[in-house]
Specification:
By secondary structure, this protein is α/β, with parallel strands linked by helices. The protein contains 18 helices and 24 strands. Strands 1, 2, 3, 4, 5, 6, 13, 14, 15, 16, 17 and 18 form a 12-stranded mixed sheet that branches.
């Protein structure tokens, strides 16, 4: 049987006018601005309404090449809730051009559980990422210009921490020398680029609660240090006003729709392995103010996206989820159990049993660390056998968690009816949500150690030379009691991508720490994680095309 691709399914669908979707969501006509027929910017002040909705977080096991379908499940669940009579709204992140043109292809869901128009969402959308990149690069330009024009602030060029950014996988820009060509062409120094979704401006936009808060956060961004070691902020360069002007419209959440007409707020897009991995607080709060059930997702596995959603975003926004959905596939669990990736269609109960601890640890974390009601959505593939599905269900039943089959890729909301009923039931349970660590729990290293031991299942952390001194400096500056954002591989609980399943007794190697003062957290870089990805040997961009009529192909 030949299956239609995601883009073919999306292009065969006729979306409803965005005015109808706004009406479905209960958004007044004067509270949104159309961007063409099928997209709109909604007034950020809608987020100030009373949060009436139950908040549902969708997360997943550590990702594998077999795919898990977290975003697809999130969208399908929102559609499924609508089908059983619940007013649901889904809140998602915007895709980055890096993965779209790199290894992943499109990132707007899949099959019959997508948000549309998928081509627009995957490419330029409403221009948010361009505005974020422009604001970040404006700050870099003003910083270098200040030094060139006499350096009144006495900034040490060797201490500059602010990178430029571009929303593309471009390894050539990881380490560069700029300001070359003589004294009229800038001050020579070592520089770098990060991908836009790893920029602190992205985090600031996603964590800001208002335009005033956005401006204040931008002003607090630390760009470097003086020769005396004093931090220099964007405010010292008088940059936050112009940066806010660039981001004024980008701060408004974007309204689109699923294939079934469920309102979808798609806004912000930090990666979860190198940033905090959640859509904007404003989008989530808007969904909660407008709907009965707000369904959102957090990037990569629960050790990354869900942890940061719960320990950073929820803490800053005062949110508490009512239920968590952990997405898994039999195929991916068999990979975690050592199965050959070419044999995933063959029944392999031994590999499944060996891979199950990965799922079980994520589920236990949700239940025992964060104390949240949890259900597992098994994203079903046609090759899954009854014996494999039964093995998975029995393992979860032993720890008191329900496993629900999800077939949203093939059936859309109809394939999530059982999952929707299970989630509604979970949302009626009492919640005693707690974080993985307290902000007053020692210093930065203590919080990192707590995450490694309580969430990852590891033994300890190891600080690279100079990191302990950097931590001491940050704590002396007053950043010892802020959340920590760990940058690490998404493929493992550890910082070693090859350690699949649920490894134990490992050490996480912290090679660098820095503060994102505007975002309000400290970032710890572990292993060999990079903030600028590179393209693969055969990038997805090689297979994307557009015909004479303007029809795009190859977006997954």
């Amino acid at each position: 049987m030949k299956y239609l691709s995601d883009i073919e399914i999306a292009q065969a669908h006729t979306p409803r006018p965005i005015a109808e979707i706004a009406a479905t969501a209960g958004i007044p006509v004067d509270c949104y601005e159309s961007y063409g027929r099928y997209k709109a910017k909604v007034d950020r002040r809608l987020a100030e309404g009373e949060s009436k909705a139950k908040l549902i977080l969708v997360t997943a096991i550590n990702p594998t090449s077999a795919g898990e379908g977290k975003t697809t499940t999130t969208i399908g669940l929102a559609d499924g809730l609508r089908r059983i009579g619940k007013k649901s709204i889904v809140a998602l992140r915007e895709p980055s051009l890096g993965p779209v043109f790199g290894i992943k292809g499109g990132a707007a869901g899949g099959g019959y559980a997508q948000v549309v128009p998928m081509e627009d969402i995957n490419l330029h959308f409403t221009g948010d990422f361009h505005a974020i990149g422009a604001a970040a690069n404006l700050l870099a330009a003003m910083l270098d210009n200040h030094i060139f024009q006499g350096n009144e602030l006495n900034i040490n060029p060797e201490s500059i921490t602010w990178p430029r950014c571009v929303d593309m996988n471009d390894r050539q820009l990881r380490f560069i020398s700029d300001g070359q060509g003589g004294c009229k062409n800038g001050v020579p120094r070592q520089d770098s680029f990060c991908i836009t979704v790893a920029s602190e401006v992205m985090a600031v936009l996603c964590l800001a609660s208002s335009l005033t808060d956005l401006k204040a956060r931008l002003g607090r961004i630390i760009v470097g240090y003086t020769h005396e070691g004093k931090p220099v902020c964007a405010h010292d360069l008088k940059a936050e006003g112009a940066m806010t002007a660039l981001l004024k419209e980008a701060l408004n959440p974007n309204l689109v729709q699923t294939l079934e007409g469920t309102p979808a707020l798609v806004h912000g897009g930090p990666f979860a392995n190198i940033a905090h991995g959640c859509n904007s607080i404003l989008a989530t709060r808007t969904a909660m103010a407008l709907g009965e059930y707000a369904v959102t997702e957090a990037g990569f596995g629960a050790d990354l996206g869900a942890e940061k959603f719960l320990d950073i975003k929820c803490r800053m926004a005062g949110l508490a989820p009512n239920a968590v959905v952990v997405v898994a596939t039999v195929r991916a669990l068999k990979l975690h159990g050592g199965a050959n990736k070419t044999q995933l269609a063959v029944e392999d109960l031994e590999a499944l049993r060996k891979g199950l601890p990965n799922l079980l640890r994520h589920v236990r974390n949700m239940k025992e660390v964060y104390h949240l009601p949890c259900v597992v959505a098994i994203n079903r593939f046609p090759t899954d056998t009854e014996a494999e599905l039964d093995t998975l269900a029995r393992a979860l039943a032993e720890i008191g968690v329900e496993a629900v089959l999800s077939e949203v890729w093939a059936k859309g909301g109809e394939g999530a009816l059982a999952l929707a009923e299970a989630v509604v039931a979970l949302c009626e349970q009492p919640v005693r949500f707690t974080h993985a660590y307290r902000l007053d729990e020692g210093g930065i290293a203590d919080k990192l150690r707590a995450l490694v031991q309580r969430v990852y299942g590891g033994k300890d952390i190891e600080l690279a030379p100079g990191v302990a001194e950097d931590i001491a400096k940050l704590e002396a500056m007053g950043y010892g009691n802020v959340p920590v954002c760990v940058a690490k591989t998404q493929y493992s609980f550890s910082d070693d991508a090859s350690l699949l399943g649920a490894p134990e007794g490992f050490t996480v190697h912290v090679r660098k720490v820095c503060v994102s003062a505007g975002a309000g957290f400290v970032v710890a870089y572990t292993g060999n994680i990079l903030t600028m990805p590179g393209l693969p040997k055969d990038p997805a961009a090689c297979h994307i095309d557009v015909d004479a009529t303007g029809k795009i192909s190859g977006l997954f």
